[in-house]
Amino acid sequence: MPNGKSLFLGVLVGGVVGASVSLLTTPTSGEEMRNRMKDQTDRLRDLTQEIKENGLDLKNQLAQTSKEGAALLKDLSQDIKESVESWKETVEPHQENLQEHLLQIEEGIKELEEKIKEQNYSR
Which residues span the membrane (predicted)? Predict the structure, then answer.
């Protein structure tokens, strides 16, 4: 937020300096100069209030966005957790069958290797 404070301070100082130079270098009567100074002061006050309100709006929007983001991340992590659990429940019953099939395939390969060896020795 240091940049926001610097911007605000720059606008404030620039407005005061600009108004002062403008008022002091213009040949006008005292009453007209007072009216101009009052107008400039009012505009500066309005600008300051508007900047303050915009800053508060931005702060509130950032707070709301961060709350919504946190809620979305929580929901997303819960969805992922549920998906992983569901996948585990789906795979686990089939895991034993897969292991049995792998053992049968290994046994089949061993039998084939033995038959090949026997055929090579019998020749």
Answer: none
In the chain, the N- to C-terminal Cα span, in Å, equals 89
Q: Residues with Cβ < 8 Å from 51, sequence gap 6 or more?
A: 8, 11
Give the rounded percent of residues in the chain with a pLDDT score beyond 70.
93
Beta carbons of 16 and 44 less than 8 angstroms apart = yes
The CA distance from 27 to 117, in Å, is: 117
Structure tokens at 83: 């998906």
Give the model confidence (pLDDT) of 63-91 as tens digits: 999 999 999 999 999 999 999 999 888 87
How far apart are alpha carbons 85 and 116 in whole angstroms? 45
Tell the residue number behind the tokens 């895991």, with chain if given: 95
Compute how many other C-beta atoms are within 10 angstroms of the C-beta atom of residue 71. 10
